[in-house]
Amino acid sequence: MGEMRVLDSTGDTKVIWDPENEDETEAAEEQYDSLIKKGFKAFKVSKKGDKGKAMKEFDSDAGKIIMVPAMVGG
Amino acid sequence: MASVTLDTYSGSTSTTGTNAIWDHWVDVCTTSLHTIDSTYADIAWGNWNDTYTSTATTSTNDEFVWYEWVQDAGVYQPAGRGRVHATPVAHQGRIIRPSVNQPERYRKLEEERKKAALKARDLLMDLIGEDQMKLYEETGRLYVKGNKFDYVVRRRGGVEKIAKDKVSDLCVHLSNKYKFPDEDNVVALKMMLEGDEDEILRLANESYIRDRPSALGRAACMN
Fold it and tell me: Are B27 and A74 contacting, i.e. CB atoms less than 8 angstroms apart?
């Protein structure tokens, strides 16, 4: 199952999809694109301990995607 | 920004000699005196009122204002309405207060915050594993290897940049960081430092450059 975790005030919102299911994958990709437009950055991690890798486009087979809201200097 | 102890609230007029309180109010850490420019106005106002409209906005619901001012307290009551006005107690950068006639609404908000904190903790544990999570919870520090430098991300905020022979502090975090649980900020920094290090280095304000100590403090994921 594909998984996308969107960091937010609830901790995170989890979006899951079956890569074999076209409708679910499309819905997940739409959500991904919408978040990117809002300034989120996307990273994929394949398994525990792996470094996060920046994503340039939606990858339905990514494993786990972490969506990070905008960051600012303090 | 590192954990700070806020100055103690002494009454209706309180002074601070540091930027600590101002940083919590406006989300921009500069000096003890700061003028908000349009770049940061929404951040400041958003942290004060939970609803940003413009650089000049009228708060129509002072429950939100009060709650946003005191964050984890959940029990401060606006003064002058026949309710208890509590004296703030400084605690790791956020003002908290024991419950006094805590209304249901604030109790619910506090519950939501605790749930969010647990979820964020679970996500971080998912990324670093149970063993390293124990070490993180013990030390409040997470070691992150970037491509150019290594870093230590602190739970309460702030990042140490570790170069070959120098260490410095980086002030960079999620926008409106107080709306997120601490561990969300840690996860965000971990992802950015690993996957978009140049962007973090571009955004961060760097300060306190010092010689690298012979031994760095303990942190999760160091080895």
Answer: yes
Of A8, A11, A70, the CB nearest to B175: A70
| Phi then psi dihedrals of residue B79, to 5 deg | -75, 165
pTM above 0.80, yes or no: no
A28-40 pLDDT per residue, tens: 999 999 999 999 9
Q: Which of A1, A2, A11 is nearest to A58 (CA)?
A: A2
Name the β-bridge partners of B145.
B150
For B15-37, b/e burial (b = at least 16 CB within 10 A) is eeeebbbbbbebbbbeeeebebe
ipTM of this predicted structure = 0.95
Hey, what amino acid is at B33?
Answer: L
A74 close to B173: Cβ distance less than 8 angstroms: yes
Q: What is the pLDDT of residues B19-30, one digit of tens each?
A: 444 444 544 444
Q: From the list B171, B174, B181, which residue is nearest A69 (CB)?
A: B174
Taking a C-beta distance cutoff of 8 angstroms, is the pair B154, B2 a contact?
yes
Is A73's Cβ below 8 Å from some Cβ in B? yes
